[in-house]
Amino acid sequence: MIHTAVLKKEVLKNLEPKQNENFVDCTIGEGGHTEDILSKNGPLGKVLGIDLDPQQIISSHWLDATFKDRVVLVNDSYTNLTEIVERKFSHSINGILLDLGMSSVQLENAHKGFSFKVDQGLDMRYNDEVGYLTAEKIVNEWPEEKIKEMLEDYGEEKFAKKIAKNIVEQRKLGRIKTTFQLVEIIKDSTPSSYWMSRRTPHIHYATRTFQALRIAVNDELENIKKVLPQAVSILAPEGRLVVISFHSLEDRIVKQFLIEESKKGTIKILNKKPIVASRDELGKNPRSRSAKLRVAIKI
Predict the structure, then answer these.
(1) Which of 218, 238, 256 is the last residue of a domain?
(2) 39/54 same-domain check
(3) Which position among 46, 113, 191, 244 has the lowest Cβ density within 10 Å, counted as fewest Cβ atoms?
(4) Contact criterion met (CB below 8 Å) for 149 and 142
(5) What is the edge-to-edge ordering of all strands in the sheet holding 292-298?
(6) How much is the average pLDDT of 202-223?
(7) 269: which strand partners?
(8) Which has the closest alpha carbon to 73: 26, 116, 114?
(9) End-to-end CA distance of the chain
């Protein structure tokens, strides 16, 4: 599957890359947004592309052939943004992009267990060398109450109590090791009306549980809280911060941070309501349906 970056036109419009300006793409993925930026900020403008997933860095190396030394790729966590910039990118930064979504490559990865549509091992780490916690560890070793709280807090799952109870019951019979095992437990824990919801037909009944596990394994919400202040700090005056979130928990953190920074007078929020995908993009790329884009400019 070829990954299509979401809100490409909207990102480019709001970052406003100009000739010889420099940018940071904190989650470069396969480089879709970075390619657009580099097509506008030549001949000397650069982009620092960061990704925690080493496979994503490999997937974005095609940019080297076209843009050569104008793109700098770093396999690291964006929570280390300030240190990465100091070490690898000694340029004034005119814009920063944070696309918090997963790519198709990550979803289709044969051994990570991000997707409930393919039978895979329950890993869910973006980088195998970072941290020891996996989704398999959580479902097999965490107490029932802690699993329930995770599903409620990170997945906003209304059947969290039943799912957690059934996970604990099932693991007594043998270790839960695969995505399909977990999907069956979730299905058995939820009513049939939840499997084909008329209100949200695009949301699979396992979506919220898998989201919660991925967030817990990678500490995603705390990482967003860590990177946002760094992004504002390293931006040049009039530099722009563009953030794309994909669920309410992420968007809530971003929105609240921007409001607080605006009150301090460090930034100006450029859109009170998040920018969402056009009808045309929704038709071509269904994954864009949950994307919300927020923009701020450093004062």
Answers:
(1) 218
(2) yes
(3) 191
(4) no
(5) 71-75, 47-51, 23-25, 93-99, 235-245, 292-298, 267-269
(6) 93
(7) 296
(8) 26
(9) 41
| CATH code for the domain of 25 | 3.40.50.150
d(CA 38, CA 154): 35
CA 298, 89, 9, 59 dihedral sign is: negative
pTM beyond 0.85: yes
Full domain range(s) for residue 269: 8-105+221-298
pLDDT digits (tens, 9 = 90+) for 230-288: 999 999 999 999 999 999 999 999 999 999 999 999 999 999 899 999 999 999 888 88
Q: Is residue 2 part of a domain?
A: no
Residue 152 has pLDDT above 70, yes or no: yes
Query: What are the phi and psi torsion angles at 80 (to 5°)?
Result: -100, 25
Structure tokens at 264: 């301090």
8 Å CB contact between 202 and 60: no
pLDDT at 209 over 70: yes
Regarding whether 36 and 180 lie in a shared domain, the answer is no
Both 91 and 225 in one domain: the answer is yes
Number of neighbouring beta carbons within 10 Å of residue 4: 15
